[in-house]
Amino acid sequence: MVSAAVAAAPTAVSSHPTGKMKPSDMEKWKRAFARASSYKTRPSTVAATEFFDQANTSAENNSNVASSERWRTLPDRLVELSNRLCDGSDHVQSERDRLAFTAAVFAAAPPDFLESFRDMFAAALTVRQARWNHDSQDEDEEDANEMESLSPPFNESDVYEALRTLGWIQTKLAKPMGEALHDTILSAVRDMVGGEFEDGTMLEQVAQTWKDTVIVPWVRDVVGSDAYKTDAWESKLDFAVAECFATIRIGEIFDIVATFPDSLPAVHELRDALDRTRMHTKLATELRASLSRRLIHPGANTSQIISVYCNVIKLLREIDPSDGLLDVVAEPVRSYLRGRNDTVRCIVTSLTDEKAGGDLYEELRRQDARPLEQAQLDSDDEGDAPDYDWSPPPSLFKQRGTMGYVSQSGGTGDILSMLVGIYGSKELFVNEYRVMLADKLLANLDFDTDKEVHNLELLKLRFGELSMRQCEIMIKDIDDSKRINSNIRETIVEKKKRRKEDQQKKKRKKHSNHRNQPRWTSPWWTVPLCRISSGRPCRRNNSRIIP
After folding, report:
1. Which of 57, 113, 140, 348 is the most buried (most CB within 10 A)?
2. How far apart are CA 163 and CA 345, in angstroms?
3. Long-range CB pairs of 457-466, under 8 A, 24+ apart, other chains included
C-alpha cells in the first residue's frame, strides 16, 4: 500500500491545477515519501518479510508436500520471530514494538496463514489423543512406528512461549485454536460415545476423565496457567464438550428413537447437554428431517410408523415436558398418518389386540388414564383452585420451546389423545371399533365375550359411555343369544334324558312282568322212564323228578 502511494505521487503533482505545489504541500509530500521509504527498512517489516520468505523457500523445495503439512516450518519461524522481537532479551522491549511486529506480519500474510496455525494446533492435539488411547489400552508391545506417532511434532513449550510473547493467542489465533479444539473434541466424542445408548455415564466420562487428561493440560500449556483462570477456560471447555456431545447425539437421534426405551440413559444425557447448550432448535430440525427421510414413505408399514411416533412422543417429553419440541417435530408424521387409509384400523387394533398392541395396548390399561375430553384440555383450566403454594408457569424466555413456538397443550395429553387428535374427532375410532367388534363377535362360535367386555370397559373410560353404547348393546345381544342357546340346549338334553329314562322304565317293567308269570310243570307221565328212575333233571325243565 505504501509503495502504491509512492508510485502515485508524481501523478498527484502533475495533476495539480497550476502544475506546481505550494511549499507547505511539498513539505507534506516529502515527509510522506520519507515515511514510505523508511517502511521497508523497519525492523518489523524486515522480520515479516524474512518470516514469509522462509516459508516460500520451503514450499518451493517441497512442492510435493500437501497443503495440510505446510505448517511444519511454522514453529521454528515463530520462535525466531519472537527472538527478534525480544532483541536478545527475555522480555519485549515495548508494547509498541509488539503491535508493529503483529501488524507487519499479518499485513503481509497469505490467505491461508491462519489455517497453518489450525493445522499446527490439530497436530499437537492429535498426538496427545494418541497418547491417551495408548495409555487406556495398556498394551505392552510397542513398535517404532507407534512410538514415533506418540512423539510431539515440535517443541511445544518454545512455540507456545513464542506465541504468548507475540501476544497472538487471545487476539489473532482465537479462531484457529477454537477450530482445532472443536474438531479434536468432536472426533474423540464420536469415537467414545457413538452408538452406545444404554450407558448413562458417557457424558461424565468425556467431561471429566478425557477432558481433564487431554484437553485441559494442552490449553494450559498454550495460554498459560494465569490466563486459563482469568479467561474462564474451564467453563469454555465444559461448554465445548457438551456442545460436541449434543451434536453427536443429535446426529444419532433417529436410532435413539428406534431403540427407545432401551436408549433412555442416552436421552437423559442428551437432555443435560441441551440444558447447557440450548441446542433444542437443532434437535428439532434434525429429528424432523430424519423422520421425513427415513420413516414417512410408502415402504413403511402403518403400524411401524405409529410405533415410532409413540416413541417420539415419549422421548421428546423426557427432554421437553411442555411439548414445544413435539408439536414442531411430529407435524409431518401426523399429516402423513392422516392421509393413510388404514391408520384408524391399526390404532384400534393396537389398542385391543395384545399380540399387535405394544405401547398402545399398555396405554389403554394405564391406571391414571383420563377421558379424552379431559386429557385434551389445557392444564391451566383443570385441577383444584390455587392455594398459597401456587406459582405461575415459567416465562416464555425460560420455556424450552423450539423455533419460537411454545406449545399450548402444556404436555397434558397422553399418547392416545395425541393419536386421536390426528383426526380431531373420536367418532372415526368408535365407528371403526364397532365394525371390528361386529366381525369378531360373528366369528366367535363359542360366544366367549369376556375379553371383549374387558376391552369395552376400558374404552368406555377413555371414549365415554355414550359413544360405546351401541357396542355394549352388541355384546349384550351376544350374551343373550348365548343364554338362549344354552337354555335351548339344556331343554333338548333334558328331553332326551327323560325320553331315555322312560324307555328304560318300560323295558324294565316288561321284563319284570315276564318273570312274574306262573311256571307250569309237566305231569310225571310225560317224562321218560329213564329219567324217572335216575332222578336226574329233565331236559324240558329244571325240575327233578322224585320217584
Report:
1. 348
2. 70
3. 458/364, 458/365, 459/351, 459/352, 459/364, 459/433, 461/369, 461/371, 462/364, 462/369, 462/370, 462/371, 462/372, 462/416, 463/371, 463/372, 463/426, 463/429, 463/430, 464/371, 464/372, 464/373
Task: Report the pLDDT value the prediction gives residue 2, as an integer from 0 to 100.
Answer: 42
> Is pTM beyond 0.90 here?
no
- Which residues of 467-532 form beta strands (DSSP E)? none
**Grid coordinates 405409529 are at which residue?**
306
Query: Does residue 153 have a cis peptide bond before it, meaning omega lies within 30 degrees of 0?
Result: no
pLDDT tens by residue, 288-330: 999 999 998 888 888 889 889 989 999 998 898 888 888 888 8
Residue that is written with C-alpha cell 433444542 in the block: 280
Amino acid 309 reads Y
Contact 405, 331 (CB under 8 A): no
Length reported for the chain: 547
Number of C-beta neighbours around residue 237 at 10 A: 19
- The answer to whether 249 and 232 are in contact (CB under 8 A) is no
- Please report, for residues 247, 532, 536, the alpha-carbon distance to residue 542 in angstroms, rounded to integers and kept in the order given: 114, 14, 9
